[in-house]
């Protein structure tokens, strides 16, 4: 099947929207890392001005106003791109479910904008946590739209069904695909934990790594917590540390370990099942690389006393880890046979070769 | 002169009011007697007032720090800010523990009396002032009375686009009082912001959302008997009525829950020193 030029451009536009969303997550991360969430206290106006006409002199060198206002402007841009994507999908996309996915993306970005505004005018940190979580899910959605509009996906949608019926194939092992799904869900849970930690506005509740206050598990009795607060010399107007925040960070560290083990296991199983050359094994290896990078950034966040750029990079790689896991899960669930092939990234000819049973390595039946 | 009226002075004043009201209807004979009684009552009231004044005492003392506090940190984001950095000469450090090198006196300790009848500030109470200078709040620790005006000024030059005064009350009444004014922008040279808080609260945070290193803490006390230690760790609480009380010293870092002692000012001025430990 040849993709029409329009569809190719639609796919490219979907990729652009996904990349813009990732950049927006980065800017949003900078807002929280710099404690700039309330630096523009009104919405949808900015200090009474129409957001798009807020004088440059008031925000370009305006301390935290720069981060918050940039975030609002960029978010408007992503909203605009998403609107175009929705309309384009509705007009050009033959698959009905894809058209509605475009509508879902539009509604999600509108909701995200409203949540961001409400967080400011109601001054509710809980809304900030929802805002952060929905941002990650929206990124997964835009990446999925990019995947579904790709030529690769469309080819497999049209060509593979017969192979999918094979019951004795090793690649139809649903436990294998579920492994990716559950690990991705665990990453989402970790992101929610991270968002909860960041929106406590208490800075770092534990300042050392890999130990915590010099122990494997820190004391959280009132006297110990009072001592931690006494010894902490903050240069930002953080709230005092609480026992809950210390425990939250410890759970975050433990879940990080679980995720590392989960992703490593997924990668290992992929290598063992399909060989290291298989696309899924390569994707799993990339995923593992992201998680290792994320662990390093997490440690660096603590050791740098939550330097804003490092903490924001941690948010960014977290978003990439979630999206990668989600895409692998979608592919593993929908096209388990396809990902087993060493030719997954090639053109439609590879599908013909697979059918003929003469290309690459065919997995042995169990 | 103490703002409190003793029971004796009130009784005498009521007698005088009765006498003045009754005297105008009496014949000459009784008016003369009434005038003598009024004079006697006035004299008694004056003496009672003097007695009241003379029974008020001052509580003084010194708060010292025992132990070595954590080292202060350089406020690098302030120094790196292209505008705020130019408003300060050299390096700027946090000031969580201001300790006098000679006597180990600890500044910024809020000392207040407990067991005193709650009382709001009167209209004549001078306002307290919290200023924003060099992109820093001054002073960092302040104490005011419930109902007392707190004026927040912005003394920074026009090169600083604005400050955003963000108040963080935790007492329910204070939260309700400022639920719609949690964060208020304040331009350079702009109008002062005014706050009054109806409920007592320790170390209510004020911060600037535009400049995250700016913060101050305001303690709201529900009586007029409080003080903040100076750079030598010394304090004075004036005109405390005779009696026995609890006196508590709070330091935001080293003693957020306070160090409590007893004080008796029945016999005149009293001195209460505190030692706050830091581990």
Can you tell me about this structure?
The complex is a heterodimer of chains A (366) and B (279). Chain A has 366 residues and is mainly α. Chain A folds into two domains: 1-149, no CATH class; 165-366, no CATH class. Helices cover 70% and strands 0% of the residues of chain A. Chain A contains 14 helices and no strands. In chain A, helix 1 (5-33) packs antiparallel against helix 12, helix 8 runs antiparallel to helix 12 and helix 10 (243-274) runs antiparallel to helix 11. Chain A is flat and about 65 Å long. Chain B is α+β, with helices and mostly antiparallel strands. Chain B has three domains: 7-55; 57-116 and 226-279, Carboxypeptidase-like, regulatory domain (Immunoglobulin-like), CATH 2.60.40; 121-224, Cupredoxins -  blue copper proteins (Immunoglobulin-like, Sandwich), CATH 2.60.40.420. Chain B has four helices and 17 strands. In chain B, the strands form four sheets. Chain B has a five-stranded mixed sheet, with no helix packed on it. In chain B, strands 1, 13, 16 and 17 form a four-stranded mixed sheet that branches. The radius of gyration of chain B is 24 Å and the shape is globular. The relative contact order of chain B is 0.20. Residues 1-6 and 19-26 of chain B have low confidence and may be disordered. The A-B interface holds A 34-39, 41, 47, 57-59, 61-65, 123, 226-227, 229-237 and B 70-77, 81-84, 94, 96, 161-162, 164, 166, 182-185, 205, 207-215, 253-254, 256-257, 278-279.
- The residue-averaged pLDDT of chain A reads 87
Helix-and-strand structural type of chain B: alpha+beta
Q: Whole-number radius of gyration of chain B?
A: 24 Å
Quaternary form: heterodimer
How much of the residues of chain B is beta strand, in percent? 25-35%
The number of helices of chain A is: 14
Low-confidence stretches of chain B: 1-6, 19-26
The N- and C-terminal alpha carbons of chain A lie at a distance of 32 Å
Q: What share of the residues of chain A lie within helices?
A: 55-70%
The total count of helices of chain B amounts to 4
Q: What is the residue-averaged pLDDT of chain B?
A: 86
Query: How many DSSP-defined strands of chain B?
Result: 17
């Amino acid at each position: 099947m040849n993709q029409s030029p329009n569809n190719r451009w639609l796919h490219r536009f979907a990729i652009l929207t996904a990349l813009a969303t990732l950049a927006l997550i980065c800017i949003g991360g900078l807002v929280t890392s710099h404690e700039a969430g309330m630096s523009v206290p009104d919405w949808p106006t900015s200090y009474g001005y129409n957001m798009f006409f807020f004088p440059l002199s008031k925000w370009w060198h305006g301390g935290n106003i720069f981060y918050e206002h940039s975030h609002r402007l960029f978010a408007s841009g992503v909203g605009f791109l998403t609107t175009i994507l929705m309309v384009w999908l509705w007009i050009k996309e033959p698959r009905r479910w894809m058209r509605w996915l475009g509508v879902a993306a539009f509604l999600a970005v509108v909701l995200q904008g409203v949540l961001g505004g409400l967080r400011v005018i109601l001054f509710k940190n809980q809304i900030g946590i929802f805002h952060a979580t929905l941002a990650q899910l929206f990124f997964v959605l835009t990446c999925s739209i990019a995947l579904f509009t790709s030529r690769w996906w469309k080819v497999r949608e049209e060509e593979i069904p017969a192979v999918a019926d094979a019951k004795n194939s090793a690649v139809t092992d649903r436990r294998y695909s579920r492994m990716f799904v559950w690990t991705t869900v665990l990453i989402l849970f970790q992101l929610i934990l991270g968002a909860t930690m960041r929106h406590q506005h208490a800075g770092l509740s534990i300042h050392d790594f890999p130990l915590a206050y010099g122990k494997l598990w820190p004391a959280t009795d009132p006297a110990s917590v009072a001592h931690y607060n006494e010894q902490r010399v903050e240069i930002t107007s953080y709230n005092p540390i609480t026992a809950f925040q210390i425990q939250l960070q410890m759970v975050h560290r433990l879940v990080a370990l679980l995720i590392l083990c989960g992703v490593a296991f997924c990668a290992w199983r992929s290598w063992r099942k399909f060989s290291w050359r298989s696309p899924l094994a390569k994707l799993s290896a990339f995923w593992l690389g992201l998680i290792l990078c994320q662990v390093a950034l997490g440690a660096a966040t603590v050791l740098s006393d939550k330097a804003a750029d490092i903490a924001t990079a941690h948010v960014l790689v977290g978003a990439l880890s979630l999206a990668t896991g989600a895409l692998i899960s979608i592919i593993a669930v929908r096209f388990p046979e396809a990902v087993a092939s060493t030719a997954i990234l090639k053109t439609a000819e590879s599908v013909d070769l697979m059918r003929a049973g003469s290309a690459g390595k065919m997995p042995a039946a169990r | 002169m103490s703002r409190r009226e003793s029971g004796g002075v009130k009784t005498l004043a009521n007698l005088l009011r009765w006498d003045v009201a009754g005297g105008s209807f009496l014949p000459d004979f009784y008016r003369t007697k009434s005038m003598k009684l009024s004079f006697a009552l006035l004299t008694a009231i004056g003496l009672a007032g003097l007695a009241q004044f003379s029974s008020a005492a001052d509580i003084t003392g010194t708060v010292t720090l025992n132990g070595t506090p954590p080292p202060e940190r350089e406020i690098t984001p302030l120094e790196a800010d292209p505008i705020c950095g130019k408003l300060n000469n050299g390096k700027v450090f946090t000031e969580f523990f201001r300790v006098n090198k000679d006597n180990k006196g600890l500044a910024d300790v809020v000392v207040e009396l407990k067991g005193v009848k709650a009382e709001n500030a009167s209209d004549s109470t001078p306002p307290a002032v919290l200023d924003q200078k060099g992109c820093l709040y001054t002073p960092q620790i302040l104490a005011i009375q419930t109902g007392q005006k707190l004026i927040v000024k912005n003394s920074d030059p026009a090169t600083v686009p604005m400050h955003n005064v963000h108040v963080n009350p935790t007492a329910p009444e204070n939260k309700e009082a400022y639920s719609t004014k949690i964060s208020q922008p304040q331009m350079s040279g702009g109008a002062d912001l005014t706050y009054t808080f109806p409920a007592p609260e320790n170390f209510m945070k004020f911060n600037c959302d535009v400049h995250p290193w700016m913060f101050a803490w305001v303690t709201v006390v529900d009586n007029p008997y409080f003080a903040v230690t100076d750079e030598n760790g010394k304090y004075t609480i004036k005109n405390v009525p005779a009696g026995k009380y609890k006196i508590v010293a709070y330091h935001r870092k080293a003693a957020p829950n306070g160090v409590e002692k007893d004080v008796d000012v029945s016999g005149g001025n009293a001195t209460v020193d505190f030692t706050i430990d830091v581990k």
